[in-house]
Amino acid sequence: MKIEKFVQNSLLLAIGSSYDTILRGLNSKLKQENCNLMQALILISLFFEKNDAVSPSQLADILGTTRGNISHGVSHLEKRRLLRRKLNEKDARSYQLILRPEGRRLAVKLIQTIDSVENYFEQKFGAQEVRGTVQRIARFRAAFASSEAGKILPSTPV
User: Fold this and answer.
1) Cα dist from 157 to 18, 80, 149, 154, whole Å
2) What is d(CA 29, CA 107) in angstroms, rounded to the nearest whole number?
3) CA of 98: how far to CAs of 28, 139, 158, in Å?
4) Is residue 158 pLDDT above 60, yes or no?
5) Which is nearest to 44 in space by CA: 108, 119, 118, 115?
6) Which of 108, 92, 97, 109 lies closest to 51, judged by CA?
7) What was the pLDDT predicted at 52?
8) Quick one: DSSP state of residue 126?
9) What is d(CA 52, CA 105) in angstroms, rounded to the nearest whole number?
10) HSE-CB of 35 using CA atoms within 13 angstroms
């Protein structure tokens, strides 16, 4: 079919298809731990930081998502008693996220799961190629996120 050539040469479709394929497999594994990727990243982030040093807003910025997504993930994890919210002593308008011992244990398992996928790609393609690919994808994301991105998309008539 004629569309095949377009599909095979489209950056957007390659990114989307790769995302779907890889994350479908990863999410099925994470689902066994009753987590999705965002929830796993929240737990892993808290694992690597001092407990009292992480706010939901910081996580949203670092993980490149919305505060709403973080809030949903935090609520799910809080209901499972994997973390707790603590009012920020310096600013009562915000709160810090504290990892509970059960959350710490799960974070270790989740790190191993994500590392196994990362290690697979490094073994298959080499660490240098993986790092280069990550850097190229970051450049594509940054270019699209720039103020120039709005100029490339056609305006939709109302």
Assistant:
1) 32, 46, 18, 9
2) 14
3) 26, 33, 46
4) no
5) 108
6) 97
7) 61
8) -
9) 18
10) 25
Measured distance CA(54)–CA(45) in Å, rounded: 8
pLDDT band, very low/low/confident/very high, at 157 (cuts 50, 70, 90): low
- Mean pLDDT score across all residues of the chain: 88
Q: Which residues pair with 85 in a beta bridge?
A: 97
Chain length of the chain:
158
36: Cβ contacts below 8 Å, ≥ 6 apart: 27, 30, 73
Cβ-based neighbour number of residue 26 at 10 Å: 17
CATH topology for the 10-146 domain: Arc Repressor Mutant, subunit A (1.10.10)
Pairing of strands 83-87, 95-99: antiparallel
- 3-class SS of residue 142: helix
Nearest one of 12, 5, 3, 55 to 144, comparing CA atoms: 12
> What are residue 97's phi and psi, to 5 degrees?
-105, 130
β-strand partners of 84: 98
SS3 1: coil
Q: What contacts 24+ positions apart, CB below 8 Å, involve 147-152?
A: none
Residue 10 has pLDDT above 80, yes or no: yes
